[in-house]
Design brief:
mainly alpha, single chain, 49 residues
Length: 49
Amino acid sequence: MEFVTHGTNDLRAGADAPINVLIRPFQEFAARETSGGILLLLCTVAALV
């Protein structure tokens, strides 16, 4: 039995896909905002203790 992938590996490996160009800045921003929020929460807890 053989499985046919129809080039799905090409889509996963394509770092230059147009959707990646649009999504990458948002992902970076969200990661920074998340880490900043965690830091703010930790500082708040430290100030209350």
